[in-house]
Design a protein that fits this description.
about 20% strand, 3-stranded mixed sheet, about 120 residues, two-stranded antiparallel ribbon, alpha+beta, 6 helices
Length: about 120
Amino acid sequence: MGYEQDLTLENRLAETIKAILGRFFFVKRRWADEQEATDFMVMTCTPIRVAVRLRRHIFLRPYGHEFTIRWSRPGGIATEIDKIRAGFVDYLFYGFVDAQEQKIVQYFLGDLRLFRQHRWQPIKI
């Protein structure tokens, strides 16, 4: 699949991805509610930049236990490794979708600031 198909899939699941990200970046503190009328808060003032990589269902069984970062792509479009190395992105949302491509069935959120501290090389291309 090409970039446009990947983007279409990401756009279709954007609301789900935003809801999942909210679980990580929004917090609820009882003391803030009781003392400051604050029910939810984000514990940072800097932008949070997240790259998204969705894998199709056919890849879940053989690669569901692996973390893959795209190293190159035809057409010269910037890849995940390019974004990471340039420091443009802080986190990677990496998920697998169901066979109908209507929902995310497995995902993780990786902190790329830690990943960027090392000069990782691919295990295989």
